Amino acid sequence: MTDILPPCPECRSTYTYQVDALLTCPECGHEWSPEAAAESGLEVRDSVGNLLADGDTVTVIKDLKLKGSSSVIKVGTKVRGIRVVGGDHDIDCKIPGVGPIGLKSQFVKKVTD
To answer: Known Gene3D superfamilies for this protein (predicted)?
Structure first.
């Protein structure tokens, strides 16, 4: 079983790797501990105030145009297995038919089962 490593907190590179007890970014050289990343206290909430966590499922609440494309992510699109990150686009995910993308949490709502 392979673990999915978090992106670099400095440059957001997804090419991180583990050396002994530290995670390392090959692009900017930043090193950090996995425990420090988990305890960073990053708190991201959806459009109605629900706390989002890695692995949650959300739905898009507004048609979103994709920059540099004529494609649109339609309202009601369900996105599974999100990853909460810092920055302007605070959700990383993969949307079927679109691919990997960053979303703003203000345009999604958490799906509760």
So the answer is: 2.20.25.10, SH3 Domains
CB atoms within 10 A of CB 84: 18
Instruction: Convert 30-65 to b/e letters by CB count within 10 Å (16 or more is b).
Output: bebeeeebeeeeeebebeeebebeeebebebbeebe
Domain 57-110: which CATH number of 3.40.50.11550, 3.40.50.970, 2.130.10.10, 2.30.30.40:
2.30.30.40
Domain 1-40 sits in CATH at 2.20.25.10
Digit-coded pLDDT (tens) for 11-52 = 778 888 888 888 888 888 888 877 665 555 567 889 998 988
